[in-house]
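Action item from last meeting closed. Structure (235 res):
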């Protein structure tokens, strides 16, 4: 586990899955802390923020990738680490064995910058459609999505919004998820096992699953970058 922090912000990041397990602003939860929650006769891991790479959601394109990809299930290597930043790297698996993934987390004065780099070191092209899956700590009743109205009964079915940025308020802060590169669709979701709502920046949603969407095909020798900021203001 690695910790990055500055005057107002702190994040705990696990090399297992490159998983942000907690993220706070002035000691207030931005993310719902990662934990195991009961669901029926079993338990589900919820909270924090994990990467979905190389794919978001289920894979019916290649029929070999787990839902939300393998990135969140593998141990990443520390590439660089300082007081307020962490860079992690991962060599791909299976058909993606020649693909190299790198995630950097960098604390800003008022938020967190996330940058995913995917490099194709192989000979052929491969589809990718990455995303990140943050669980924001809020009840649905305390959440206000600027410019978008959603009903609680419409969840836990995912709601897709075509946008490169999303601003919302919860009880104690305003948050902007600001896409800088290759963010085209946000997914809103919660199963209401606890007080969290997922507002997920994705390349273009479920393009490994939906027939009407196309993933990005990464050619040999090329690099794909996905970057966004999570910016925070007091209310």
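Sequence:
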């Amino acid at each position: 586990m690695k910790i990055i922090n500055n005057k107002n912000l702190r994040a705990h990041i696990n090399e297992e899955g490159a998983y942000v397990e907690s993220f706070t602003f002035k000691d207030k939860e931005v993310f719902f802390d990662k934990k195991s929650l009961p669901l029926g006769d079993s338990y589900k891991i919820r909270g924090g923020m994990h990467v979905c790479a190389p794919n978001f959601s289920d894979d019916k394109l290649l029929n070999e990738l787990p839902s939300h990809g393998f990135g969140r299930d593998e141990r990443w290597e520390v590439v660089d680490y300082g007081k307020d930043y962490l860079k992690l790297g991962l060599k791909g698996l299976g058909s993606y064995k020649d693909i190299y993934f790198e995630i950097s987390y960098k604390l800003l004065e008022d938020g967190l910058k996330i940058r995913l780099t995917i490099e194709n070191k192989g000979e052929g092209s491969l589809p990718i459609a990455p995303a990140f899956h943050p669980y924001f700590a809020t009840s649905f009743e305390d959440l206000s999505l600027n410019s978008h109205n959603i009903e609680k009964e419409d969840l836990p079915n995912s709601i897709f919004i075509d946008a490169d940025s999303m601003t919302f308020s919860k009880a104690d802060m305003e948050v902007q998820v600001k896409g800088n590169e290759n963010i085209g669709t946000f997914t809103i979701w919660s199963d209401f096992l606890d007080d969290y709502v997922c507002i997920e920046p994705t390349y273009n949603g479920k393009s490994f699953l939906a027939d009407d969407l196309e993933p990005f095909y990464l050619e040999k020798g090329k690099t794909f970058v996905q970057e966004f900021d999570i910016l925070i203001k007091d209310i």
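Note appended to the action item: The longest strand covers residues 223-234.
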